[in-house]
Write the structure tokens for this entry.
Amino acid sequence: MRFIGALIFWVIVAIIVFFAFAFSGIYQVGADVPHWSVTRHAIGMVREHAVDRRIADIKPPPLDDPALVKLGAEHYSEMCTGCHLAPGMGHSELRDGLYPKPPNLTRFAPDPAEAFWIIKHGLKMTAMPAWGATHDDHTIWAIVAYLQKQPRMSADEFKSLTASASGMQGHEAVPASAGSVPAPPASTAPASASGMH
């Protein structure tokens, strides 16, 4: 009984400390100030174990089909280069302002199952969107297939693969709902510049 009373006491103390900390405004939330080391490690541990648990049953399809790689390259060009770069890119203004910094996917090929899950579902506490809301599994696997080839790809090979990507179907502005301001024509709508983090 004494143990339960002590446990309740310390839970109440922890709650009070949390709210005092939260309302104090001490913690820096600006993206130009890094997390405390303990915060960074805690978020990383939660994210790593959460993703590992969810990819255990994902079985990648064959990823060597050139048509699949080309489709993935086209989508990657339209959606991901602003954050994750592409062959021949040194940096981007969008990437330079992000925290945490997105991985440079020109330097390594991510695990296919992990890449598929992250591209599809996104990641909280990063700028990584859930592309599964707008792309089917086949297209997401195509991006994964492309990512397996990208680290060994030259800038010229990337340009050749993505020559027809600009303005590709599905990446123009989303039409405005009835009664709202009309969206600009597809030919002038800006391409999306987010990607996997």
Q: What stands out?
A: Residues 173-195 have pLDDT under 50 and may be disordered.
